[in-house]
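ugh ok so i messed up the first submission bc i forgot one of the chains. this is the corrected input, ALL of the components this time, i swear. 833 residues overall. if the numbers dont match what u have on ur side tell me asap before i send this to the collaborators (the ones from the other lab, u know who)
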Amino acid sequence: MFFKTTIAFAAAAAFSMSAMAWEPSGKVECLAPADPGGGWDFTCRSVGKVMQDLDLVSGSVQTVNMAGAGGGVAFAHTVSKRKNDEKLIVAASTATTTRLAQKQFPGMDASMVKWVGALGADYGIIAVSKDSKYENLNQLMDALKENPRSVKFAGGSARGGWDHLKVLIAAKAAGAENLPSIPYLSYNNGGEAMTQVVGGQVDAFTGDVSEATGFMDSGDLRVIAVLSEERLPGKFSHIPTAREQGIDALGPNWRGFYMPKETSAEAQKYWVDAVDTLYASDEWKAVMKSNGLIPFHPKAGEFESFVTNQVQDIETLSREIGLLK
Amino acid sequence: METLGFLMDGFAVALTPYNLMFALFGAFVGTLIGCLPGLGPANGVAILIPLAFTLGLPPETAMILLTSVYAGAMYGGRISSILLNIPGDEPAMMTCLDGYPMAQKGRAADALAISAIASFAGSLIGTIGLIMLAPVLARFALTFGPAEYFALFLLAFATLGGITGKNPMKTVIAAALGIMISTVGIDISTGTQRYTGGVLELYEGIDFILAIVGLFAISELLFFVEARMGKGRSKVKMGKMTLTFKEVVSTVPTQLRGGLLGFIAGVLPGAGASLGSFISYTLEKSVLGKKGRFGEGDIRGVVAPEAGNNGAASGALVPMLTLGVPGSGTTAVLLAMLISLNITPGPLMFTQNADIVWGVIAALLIGNVLLLILNIPMIGVFVRLLSVPPMYLLPIVTMVAFVGIYSISHSTFDLYFMILFGVGGYLLRKLEIPLVPIILGLLLGPEMEKNLGHALILSDGDWTTLWSSPLSIGLWLVAGLGLVLPTLVGPILRRRMRNAIKEGPVSD
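and heres the new structure output, hopefully the right one now
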């Protein structure tokens, strides 16, 4: 009996030991689903570097770029060819959830991967030119409520993309109706869209706060709301949130990771913990500061449900505006 | 004098040893590309694009390299015109007229030297024009709304054939092909996929860098393999330099006239460097009348077209940098490079990427000095390189193209695509369908579509918005002229160009 218990104990100990100790050996791969130079590439490279500096991984973190279909090529690759690779993480952001929600990765959905965690965000803003008659978000939304066609928006994503959705999220929260008829002009990037707003061709700009810094500093652009829970730190602290203007709209463009589905629970725990440790480190805080990232980090275990909710919200919204049938 | 301050900052960027090295390299390779017959500036820049990616150059360095190649090619074109009576590229055609006769009289070295000086003067005048005009135009462009942009793109397409274009139908076919290719992928105004056939790799559309490198560089390789595999040309004798200072001074008015005319021709969309060199030669001939011996080796007959085509080369950069509408084939390729470096040309670039814009402009000025140095004392090197057998050049170009494209996206799919474009480009060139309109269609088609959509959203579907402002009406009128004039004036001009060349004492 004693003997048997000991064996069981030893086995259990060995098991838990190995569970505690699971750690990727050798080279780890971070897949950036875009060309070098973009946001996902930055996520992989900066996270890889800090992980190595903090000795969170024993080997090196190698960034591999796999562009295509706005992340779809990398998603398909992870789901089909790397489904049990425990040494692989893939960079993702709100752009990923938007495309998943709108079924733009054919035959794939958010539940086909494991969501690891987020490491910061860029928040959505709504801005007008300095000469605009709209002084705050309420005035702008009142105009929309009266006539949805009265305010024209410009943004740097395609119709139905994240920049467009932020307008709809805010308008919906403000109680505006007939969302699909709100005019949205899509440009190749935020800069082009801002030029049109500053030049007086379009009424309002929708984008992320990091894009607007240049025109904000020059005084050409007036940011009338940021879609965050609280006011942003630093030089953005003068921007009122939509919430404090009585419009409960949130638009974080988060940066984070997912990993393949058929991996062990131990590996998943390891990566979730690693992201937690990384996020708390001073090294990462420095990276966030120098790159304009704002704190955003759902607690361990909550990220998966955050992603699921975001996908659901976007799906509902997309259906309402007729982008999804 | 804000501009001067920016220009100084630009020099600070361009004069770093690293950037200076690439400017020198670009100038050298550009001259070489220019002097190889058949290999024009657009192809030259296209061949160098993958190199910029292979080396992982920062944006300003990549642009400095490519603009130096561009400027160099404009210089280089004259070398084979003068020595072989074969223009190295189209804009150098007019240089044959008096350059080759000069060479036959034993004054090849003089012709090369004076044409280098003329190229320098033309390019300098053009660049000064660019410095003065571009910031003004960039500020003006802020007043452009979607309707005006739509009219502007229409203008670009209307003048596509240009006055020197041969077959308008083929130009239209080429532009339509480009626009068709550009519709593949997500349509940003509706958020839906078009013509992707469920292939994930096509969802973001076809990368125009791929198309450009394939169409120009790979098809060029195929042509080389077909036509010139084997030995190089036999060496050409240059003779001693007898050019006097007095002779150089006597051509100064010609240089100024040529440079200025060229610049104006360059700024106009669709006209380009060929027209620049043609009108400055023609003007020179009519101004000097009987005093000159044009066609028999008059030194001013070499100076005028060279000042003209180099002035036009800088002029063509003006609409490209300020409005995002290229004034010529080569600037279209440069535009594609800018876009793939994530820089949007236009008013915004002058504020947000000032270091790149002014770095490039400063590099043009520096490049010119470098080119002058390269082209007078070291001209012998290029003359000797003319006789290098292509079998040594080909493998290098092929390797650079493949490595470069692969390093952009790490995708073998893209390599297959590039080869596909290369074979396509080869076939199109065999059918004498020009490639530049394809690139313009590819680049400008989506922009035109987007702006049309935006204009209609802003006006709630009222089509008259497209011609409701004085500016857009003006653009429509110029577009109309651009469409009609070539069919009226074009044949006459072309006949004159042909006759001018036939008048040359000897032709190949």
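quick check: The first helix of chain A runs from residue 2 to 21. that seems consistent at least. Confidence is low (pLDDT under 50) at residues 9-19 of chain A.
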